[in-house]
Amino acid sequence: MPQSTATSTTKTRLATGFRWTICALLLAGTTKNYMDRQVIGILKDTLQHQFGWNEIDYGNLVVAFQAAYALGMIAAGQAIDRWGTRIGYAWAMAIWSLASMAHGFASSFTEFLAARFALGLSESAVFPASLKAIAEWFPRKERSLAFGIANAGTNIGAVVTPFLVPWITIHWGWRAAFYFIGGLGFVWLAAWFWLYHPPAEQPRCSAGELAYIRSDPADPEIRVSWLTLLPYRQTWAYTVGKLLTDPIWWFFLFWIPDFLQREHGLSLIQLGVPIMLIYLMADVGSVAGGWLSSSLIQRGKSVNAARKIAMLICAVAVTPIVFTSRVESTTGAVLLIGLAVAAHQGFSANLFTLPSDMFPRRTVASVVGIGGTAGALGGMVIASVVGHLLQWTGSYAIPFIIAGSAYLIAIAAIHLLAPRLEPAVLAAQDL
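Request: output the structure for the sequence above.
Response:
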């Protein structure tokens, strides 16, 4: 074989899996995203002591983030659909990294509120952009696995942050933690601009891989307003699922470190190992949940059956968390929380693929944005409820009961609204 031909063949072989490089880049983006948003949860006790915040004050900081996240979701999906994934995600990363760093300059409750609001507004683009990138780079049968891997970054961020933040805080103070973690976003941006292009414009994507990516039936080339998507039952199936389950994830993210400190006496520096175990379990759940439905599809199950079987298994696996507040062993509590967080991520990996299962690619980010808005609004409610419950009762019992029941209600609602997960047939006036 001539050397030029052999070289060309080698390059083609290397390029056939380039979509997984894109998946790794999305994984890094979600990791950075969750590092930024979790810093304040790790430093909750430190900041409460320094600034004199009570539980309701902290709940209001979470509400500010959620309110901005909800507002941002309304525009984020449309912006990603309009500007394209490459530019839209880059703008979002730059702005939320600056907002994260701004926490380090805050010296009053009002300044923290402003920083949290800016962070929530800009971070709202991460999942619409990630889902649109996956819809661009992966065929339908691989999307839940691809998102499961990308979504695992939420857990990696949650594992790394409890080790990194206390270490930075002890050596350089809590402000430095915000500066350093926020600044990492600009390293990611360099990699993003180097690697991310639509498949047809990326020279590292071979002709064979491009054909594989495009192996699904072609979607109609349309652009619609998010308002026109609201009447469809498929939109509401996804939206209700997000409304019911996203608040539980926010509860895990922003209050579990406090639960371990308050109920099990862990210090800031002792949080690392338990949190690491919880989110390592979550990583397994994220990938396993995506793999399960993809595997069922490859074995002949319909998309409808595969997604719902996976989500039902995950919903059942969350329920033991209702006993967590009664468990005296730290190890036992950590394992129950870890199981629930893993099940949430498996559920979420499948829930996030529903828009790409039921809508054309050009509308995916908009549908994700609608659902994300609902999830953030639910997060506002749970933040206020948990803050007041802790202030009044000092107990986590009721929040854990809410967490244990939300997913079974969600899968029932999804099935009622979209019994077959049939693709939405957009009306002529919506095209």
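The CA atoms of residues 24 and 128 lie 17 Å apart.
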